[in-house]
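Work package 3, deliverable 3.1, input record:
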Amino acid sequence: MHDVSAHAAQHHAPPQGFIRKHVFSLDHKVIGKQYYALALVAVFTGMVLSWLMRLHLGWPNLAIPGLHLLSKIGAPGNVMTPEYYLQLMTMHGTIMVFFVLTTAPFAAFGNFFLPIQVGAEDMPFPRFNMMSFWVTFVAFLVLISAFFVGDGPPLSGWTAYAPLSAVGAVAGPGQGLGQILWAASIGIFCIGQLLGSLNFITTTLDMRTKGMSLMRLPLTAWAWFITSCMGLTAFAVLMPACILLILDHVAGTSFFIASGLVINDQLQPHSGGSTLLWQHLFWFFGHPEVYIAIVPGMGIVSHVLITNMRRPLLSYKVMIGAMTSIAFLSYMVYGHHMFVSGMNPTSSLVFSFPTLIITIPATIVTLIWIGSLYGSRLRINAASLFALGFISMFVSGGVSGFFLAQPSIDIMLHATYFVVGHFHLVMAVAAIFGIFAGTYFWFPKMTGRMMNDTLGKIHFWLSFVGAYCIFMPFHYLGIMGNVRRYAQFVDDYMQPVLGVHKFITIAALATGAAQLIFLYNLIYSRFWGEKAPDNPWEGTSLEWSTTSPPPWDNFGGKHLVVHHDPYQYGVKGSTGDYIMQTSPEASPTGE
Amino acid sequence: MAKFFAVTIILIAIGSAVPIVRGTWTQPEDISTHGHEIDKQYHETMWEAGLAFLAAQIILAVFIWSSSGRGGDAPIKRFPGGATGLVLAAFLLVGTEVLALGIFGANAWAKVYFAPPGPDAMPVQVQAGQFAFYFRYPGPDGKFGPIHPDKIDEANLNFFGLDYNEPATKDDIVTAEMAIPVNHEIHLLMHSKDLGHSFYVRELRVQQDFVPGLDVSLHFTATKIGRYEVVCTQLCGLGHYNMKTYLEVMSQSDFDDWLKKEAAMQ
């Protein structure tokens, strides 16, 4: 538990100079903000790409002014070509999954708050921590550079299925250098996440202050700890897979390429590889990745809701148990992405059952949230609205999982917009709502200034209604058999649904534009927002026991002692209806 | 604001369910002998998932409504049964539900994939390549000649890489569209020329990926005469969106005539 020697070893001098303070900083808080800034740049980039895609799907012959500037070959006359659509789609998915959904809830908030919440001055390996961000930054640059080389970024989707992703330029635009850059970027990204996961695990296990037992950790800290355990194993599989993919391109190997393939009338000089091997390796990472994106959100939503409900959850231990079960099961379910891949049909059944079973802990998490709302003293603000919106989105995206977990139904729904609607709601929108909840909640602590709550609420309403307008109709399209990853809908049966696509496009543009309110609020509040008190939400965990923003060593040289579990709300304390973790006063619950 | 939010959640939940209940956008008519198993499973899942969706959203909304605006002195109430009750409910209700779905779903899957094709099943080979499907019928000898990837020559219409000097190949019939007799089991042999593709016919309730380097097969029986789109659902490159052909389900006599005409054109 408490390890004084670890603290002593960790103590480092205040940073000196601009570079050390703000660029190559060893301070976990600066690194957390750097991750947040990277995720912010990435999310707006990914969103603009999705706008372009949606415009093309609604109006395929529309000329988009300036589009040719983005691509020499992809937009003659500013009208998007099918291949450019696929390239934008690949980049949208890759940017969003890796550089937004993984970095913001886990690396950004986790870096800033995990050491503070456990009462540490920093992470145990600050240089690794700094490296993890800069490696991730390099990975982002490498990925974006694919826009500017040869014939552009790859068109094989964020899943980069082989052999399309492995055979090189012969398979189409972007499949040469663009695909190599993609694989290099993701391989580098994995290094950053492995370094980060190591730091998170050791911080949680070795850096806790006196009295901070594991069972006194806030649920956010638990969520980041569980996520880092997943990250350590999942990214460790994806990284070598990316290396093998690059070798297939540059070294003449055939890990993912079978013999006798004829592409563009050219017999490929490869033999002996397995195309399904890539899918197994990718999804062994890919499914835990879904939970790497969402489990931190579960922690954030729990933390934000508890503070705003003014009561602890019905069960802290059940919540931890459910999140741990989800993480454990996430490795046994990945084959549900491959039901119709040509994998042995018996394997499909084997993967189907854990996929169905994982709905039990997911249901428990949801029921604990909803049950805890009952009889609480709910405070409505931008953070709690987004946390509640997360629950609604998680339910909506989760129930469609019942369909996709069954191989027989998957025959009909696989590769349709039903899948797109499912994962966007449960993984993307829910996770982003978690990020928004965390932002509105922790912004005062991170910057020392309050965000404008009215603007936050407007942002919430537009995002909540907008996200449903975009993603619910995807399910209907999928039920009709509307295939995903099509640049245009030339098939006869898709013609009647073009109106639905146009509606979705308009909703996506409007919802995207609403995010500018958030951006304005974020930037304005950062510089001119009202000064934040140390504990604006009357919270109990350790981040509220220090100044806003915290000093470079988090607690001004004090070594905190923890006396209580993290959620002493709804009790009579000297400060109100809560008792802080650091308060020595006795708690009526005895915790 | 909380009450408004609660009403919005309920409106969105009910509004989302309306197109499903009314069947505004629904799956196309099933034209296969196995499809009713999948459809049955789909409808049962829709009932269960739909009810879970509505119940969760409405209860969430009701609790948001009731818990907001309570004063700072209002007592915190405990949900009846507490966490134990909810965990038990999750295990019993969702556990039973997923067990039932799993078992019945496995049964539906088994009927598609685990039963071998009957002895009278008609073999048809389909080859997928960027960005077209080609079909091969074995001709009177009932045998397919071997494929030689090095002999593929699309300019000279040798899509499969066949050597017509080989006895088994001589009577093979290659077509760009697929025709099959109604109510006759088809044994579809799937071969990829180049990359990953997929064979998806919505009405047939059939979707199966092609695996380059590994020939896979499936079997089905179409029960309704008509013309249906076959589309690729596995991203295969820039022309993926346009990779499609048609499946013509014909009477046996029409099919026999069609096959003769195609054979004459080889």
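The two ends of chain A are 17 Å apart (CA to CA).
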